[in-house]
């Protein structure tokens, strides 16, 4: 489903060029659960952001199906994200001013097809997504009224409410205790079992073990790719 | 804006109430100042625009270009017979004259003064006044007809139909019976056409000065189909003046006296004659103040919105991740700004409505909000302000890189975004604020200077009686009766009096041994005890007295030497080395005048009119004088009541018109006083809006630096060090702002002061004081938050995000 060809990303500041991605070649199959590991600063998050099209590569090709995303303009990329991707972050990134239900519904409002969905349909989808992550009883609460684990479950609900083809998770358990971390991983695993493609960045080897394949990065390159024995 | 954007905005405003208050409140205040001063500018620029076909009506100006004359300039009035002479040469011309003369309505032997004018029968061809009853054209055809406005009709006839009724009027001293032939709608406030009664202009052909070129007695208006026609006609006026003015003015009369056409709508703001352009300057200045106050409020919005941008970075990034494009986000943020501006707009209407009575009182105005016009105008303004204020924050916010914002656990942007732009905007705000403060100080100082300046006479204890014009037969009796009143110390008559009442006369005084007509001097005819009543300062020689029979100039022929007293200005103008040197000298060649004394300049006129070189002639009789001056002791009200009682006993049919010299002089200062009040209100509010913004900005910046403060304190910084750090951050832009404020204020104020004959000097102290005040305001604005931040426990601060 995804093919990265020689993706490079470098940052230039004060005449110093820092290479975050040094020619990444990667293939992610549809329905795959991929974990990315590596020390801080190795380029994991940059790779994930590139996959999420919130960061543009300096060079290389990013094929999503048969489309080269590197060639799309900003507005088309925004549409692509709205329709194809779901994001989960370490720090949840819920909007403080919106309730949990509204935060999750926000996952649908920027979709091009939103006008076809009546608000009733949207409400149903939001309710289903909340049910899926067990957060329905907190629908009317604001993010700051929830625990970290609940916030992350809400963030996952927001990521999946639009039935994305790819879920990108950036250290989704990084801010959670063990119990909440396990709950989040269980949800991701069941989403994957239902057919979702997931790419997850993590520092935790045990959480990486939930994935079918793990790649290790160092200094902007993939240094190992290990598939879990089934 | 979608529902979520609205919800986010609403909840953000209710959660951050202070921010909402500062931003919407500041914007509302800015809009209110703009609205009120806009109303003022609209009123001042709307004069005569209510007249149908006002674009076709032109006022004929008499523009004097005399050598060394104090009276040069374009006056709005002309000689009485000008229109007759114009029609001889241009028979198809459409025009009318308006001659404002004293009008008294007499009922039961008591006279009541009214604003009235005599007009040509062609008046209706130029001025299409709206009639309530009767026809304008036919009403002016019969000489004994009178037209009154609704107010006068109501006042004298109440519910009775006024048309056909008789009124006894004293018009310019002549009493007669008039039949009310029509009622016109009372003229609106925005007009210089001051009349509520109109009667037909009688034939004047035989009167003195009616055809004397150089005299000015009434207003002549002409109507042309197009501006081009008016322009073509105006081009012919120089030749016309040369042909007709030759006898009175000499060859090439148009070089001395030019006739010009002024569109009637421009009359109000065009300075008349020697006046400085104060009215126009005031309107422009206050328009600028209103616009700048709004601009400062917009700057506040931009500052606060960009300062808060860091707090919203995560929201922006998340919306981007969820598929919002930059265009969508820009639209959202501009939409927010328009919404905030709309709320501010509503509040500003309420503020303007509440503030208008105060502004009207301070500015001597009677403004009201015309809602049918103000609401749509405000709606347009709200959209413009919203776009103006929202655009930069929208672009800045929508530019946040989603990837780095979302992967960082720190408050993204951290308020750094646009910090340079914010500093520039604070400099801009404070430059204006400091310039406003300097302006307020200088305006106040100049107004106080004008009020307290030595006018060359004792201004308190004087009553000026202006209603003497129509009392030819009773004048002597009145003066004797005034003199007998116990509180009256002395009485006098003068051709020109404190507050500008009386006549303007000037003539050239040829100097011995020098060619040419000599300098032009103002001359004032004065009665008995004029200088002693006014308390003039004698510098050299003596003033007039009856013991010197030769002082009386009444019956002297043109070639006889007349004794004159001159003022200090005249000493230099006439070329004498000192006042003492002037005494005893004879000037004026064929019309010789002997200088018997020199007095200090007596300023009777507006402080904006240059002090003229003047000479005084003595006439101990009462003829020819229209104004009396009385010096009283004790309480003004008692003295005024006694004077009025005497008046009503001797001349009950003539309305009594008197005021103290202070009151008369106040009228000369009123325009500047009012302008200064309005400027001060606008300036103080503009500074306040700036402070609101600075306070908001300081609170965000302080919050942003809490962690830094924690680190500094951990490293040993004292609370004082922290306060110093935070306050200094704001003093820098305020200090830089002075670099712009000082020259700006200097240029503007130098121009304003140039309009005064006796202006204060632009001392650097005003500038320093304004700077100190701005620094003080800035420190007071940020100090509370800095102190609170400085006192926070380092451990808490370090955990703070």
UniProtKB/TrEMBL annotation, chain A:
CDD domains tied to this protein: ABC_MJ0796_LolCDE_FtsE
Keyword ATP-binding: yes
Keyword entries, A-Z: ATP-binding, Nucleotide-binding, Transport
Record keyword Transport present: yes
Domain of life of the native organism: Bacteria
InterPro entries cross-referenced by the UniProt entry: AAA+_ATPase, ABC_transporter-like_ATP-bd, ABC_transporter-like_CS, ABC_transpr_LolD-like, MacB-like_ATP-bd, P-loop_NTPase
Residue stretches making up the ABC transporter domain: 2-230
PROSITE patterns according to UniProt: ABC_TRANSPORTER_1, ABC_TRANSPORTER_2
Coiled-coil annotated residue ranges, if any: none
GO MF, one example: ATP binding
A UniProt-annotated Pfam family: ABC_tran
Name of the protein described by the UniProt record: ABC transporter ATP-binding protein
Organism whose genome encodes this protein: Novosphingobium beihaiensis
TrEMBL record, chain B:
InterPro entries named in the record: ABC3_permease_C, MacB_PCD, Macrolide_Exporter_MacB
Localization of this protein: Cell membrane
Record domain MacB-like periplasmic core: where: 21-238
Annotated transmembrane regions: 20-41, 283-307, 328-351, 371-392, 424-445, 675-697, 734-753, 765-783
Boundaries of every ABC3 transporter permease C-terminal domain copy: 288-400, 682-794
Pfam families: FtsX, MacB_PCD
Location (main, coarse): membrane
Keywords, comma-separated and alphabetical: Cell membrane, Membrane, Transmembrane, Transmembrane helix
Keyword hit for Transmembrane helix: yes
Topology versus the membrane: Multi-pass membrane protein
Keyword rRNA-binding listed: no
Protein's UniProt name: ABC transporter permease
Organismal lineage: Bacteria, Pseudomonadati, Pseudomonadota, Alphaproteobacteria, Sphingomonadales
């Amino acid at each position: 489903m995804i093919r990265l060809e020689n993706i490079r990303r470098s940052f230039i500041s004060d005449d110093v060029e820092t290479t975050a991605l040094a020619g990444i070649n990667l293939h992610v199959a549809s329905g795959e659960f991929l974990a990315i590991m590596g020390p801080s600063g190795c380029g994991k998050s940059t790779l994930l952001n590139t996959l999420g099209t919130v960061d543009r590569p300096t060079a290389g090709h990013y094929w999503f199906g048969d489309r080269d995303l590197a060639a799309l303009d900003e507005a088309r990329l925004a549409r692509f994200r709205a329709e194809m991707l779901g994001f989960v972050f370490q720090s949840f990134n819920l909007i403080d001013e919106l309730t949990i239900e509204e935060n999750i519904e926000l996952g649908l409002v920027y979709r091009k097809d939103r006008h076809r969905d009546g608000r009733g349909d949207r409400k149903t989808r939001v309710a289903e997504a909340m049910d899926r992550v067990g957060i329905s009883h907190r629908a009317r609460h604001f993010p700051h009224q929830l625990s970290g684990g609940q916030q992350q479950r809400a963030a996952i609900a927001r990521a999946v409410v639009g039935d994305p083809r790819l879920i990108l998770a950036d250290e989704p358990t990084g801010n959670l205790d063990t119990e909440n971390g396990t709950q989040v991983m269980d949800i991701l695993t069941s989403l994957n079992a239902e057919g979702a493609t997931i790419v997850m960045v993590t520092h935790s080897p045990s959480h990486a073990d939930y994935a079918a394949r793990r790649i290790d990065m160092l200094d902007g390159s993939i240094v190992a790719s290990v598939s879990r024995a089934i | 804006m979608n529902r979520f954007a609205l919800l986010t905005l609403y909840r953000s405003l209710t959660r951050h109430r202070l921010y909402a208050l500062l931003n919407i409140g500041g914007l509302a205040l800015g809009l209110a100042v703009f609205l009120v001063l806009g109303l003022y500018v609209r009123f001042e620029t709307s004069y005569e625009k209510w007249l149908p076909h006002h674009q076709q009506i032109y006022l004929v100006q008499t523009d004097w270009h005399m050598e060394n004359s104090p009276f040069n300039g374009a006056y709005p009035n002309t000689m009485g017979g000008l229109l007759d002479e114009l029609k001889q040469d241009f028979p198809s011309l459409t025009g009318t004259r308006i001659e404002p003369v004293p009008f008294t309505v007499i009922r039961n032997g008591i006279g009541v003064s009214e604003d009235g004018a005599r007009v040509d029968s062609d008046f209706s061809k130029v001025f299409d006044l709206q009639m309530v009853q009767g026809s304008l054209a036919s009403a002016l055809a019969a000489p004994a007809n009178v037209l009154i406005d609704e107010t006068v009709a109501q006042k004298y006839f109440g519910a009775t139909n006024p048309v056909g009724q008789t009124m006894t009027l004293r018009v310019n001293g002549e009493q007669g019976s008039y039949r009310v032939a029509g009622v016109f709608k009372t003229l609106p406030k925005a007009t210089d056409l001051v009349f509520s009664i109109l009667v037909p202009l009688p034939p004047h052909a035989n009167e003195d000065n009616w055809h004397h070129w150089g005299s000015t007695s009434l207003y002549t208006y002409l109507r042309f189909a197009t501006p081009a026609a008016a322009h073509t006609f105006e081009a012919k006026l120089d030749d016309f003046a040369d042909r007709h003015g030759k006898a009175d003015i000499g060859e090439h009369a148009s070089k001395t006296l030019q006739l010009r056409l002024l569109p009637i709508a421009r009359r109000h703001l065009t300075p008349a004659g020697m006046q400085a352009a104060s009215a126009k300057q005031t309107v422009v200045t206050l328009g600028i103040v209103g616009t700048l106050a709004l601009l400062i409020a917009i700057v506040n919005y931009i500052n606060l919105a960009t300062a808060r941008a860091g707090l919203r970075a995560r929201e922006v990034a998340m919306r981007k991740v969820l598929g919002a494009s930059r265009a969508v986000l820009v639209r959202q943020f501009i939409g927010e700004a328009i919404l905030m501006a709309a709320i501010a707009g509503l509040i500003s209407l309420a503020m303007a409505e509440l503030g208008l009575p105060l502004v009207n009182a301070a500015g001597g105005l009677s403004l009201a909000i015309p809602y049918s016009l103000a609401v749509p105008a405000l709606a347009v303004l709200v959209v413009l302000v919203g776009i103006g204020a929202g655009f930069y924050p929208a672009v800045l916010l929508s530019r946040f890189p989603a990837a780095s914002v979302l992967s960082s656990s720190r408050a993204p942007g951290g308020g750094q975004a646009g910090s340079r732009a914010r500093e520039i905007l604070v400099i801009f705000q404070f430059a204006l604020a400091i310039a406003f403060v300097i302006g307020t100080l200088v305006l106040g100082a100049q107004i106080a200077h004008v009020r307290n300046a030595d006018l060359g006479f004792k201004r308190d204890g004087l009553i000026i009686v202006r209603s003497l014009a129509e009392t030819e037969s009773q004048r002597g009796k009145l003066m004797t009766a005034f003199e007998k009143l116990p509180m009256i110390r002395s009485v006098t008559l003068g051709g020109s009096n404190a507050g500008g009442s009386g006549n303007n006369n000037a003539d050239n005084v040829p100097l011995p041994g020098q060619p040419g007509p000599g300098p032009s001097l103002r001359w004032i005819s004065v009665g008995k005890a004029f200088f002693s009543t006014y308390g003039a300062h004698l510098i050299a020689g003596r003033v007039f007295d009856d013991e010197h029979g030769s002082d009386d100039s009444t019956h002297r022929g043109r070639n006889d030497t007349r004794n004159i007293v001159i003022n200090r200005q005249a000493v230099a103008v006439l070329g004498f080395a000192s006042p003492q040197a002037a005494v005893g000298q004879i000037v004026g060649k064929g019309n010789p005048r002997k200088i018997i004394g020199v007095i200090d300049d007596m300023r009777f006129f507006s402080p904006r009119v240059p002090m003229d070189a003047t000479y005084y002639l003595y006439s101990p009789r009462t003829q020819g004088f229209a104004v009396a001056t009385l010096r009283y002791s004790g309480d003004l009200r008692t003295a005024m009541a006694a004077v009025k009682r005497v008046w009503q006993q001797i001349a009950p049919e003539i309305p009594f018109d008197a005021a103290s010299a202070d009151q008369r002089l106040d009228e000369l200062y009123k325009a500047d006083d009012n302008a200064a009040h309005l400027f001060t209100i606008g300036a103080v509010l503009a500074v306040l809006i700036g402070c609101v913004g600075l306070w908001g900005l300081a609170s965000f910046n302080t919050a942003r630096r809490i962690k830094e403060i924690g680190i500094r304190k951990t490293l040993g910084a004292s609370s004082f060090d922290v306060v110093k750090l935070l306050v200094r951050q704001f003093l820098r832009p305020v200090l830089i702002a002075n670099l712009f404020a000082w020259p700006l204020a200097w240029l503007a104020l130098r121009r304003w002061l140039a309009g005064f004959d006796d202006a204060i000097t632009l001392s650097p102290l005003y500038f320093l004081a304004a700077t100190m005040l701005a620094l003080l305001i800035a420190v007071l604005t940020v100090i509370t938050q800095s102190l609170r931040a400085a006192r926070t426990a380092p451990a808490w601060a370090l955990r703070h995000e």
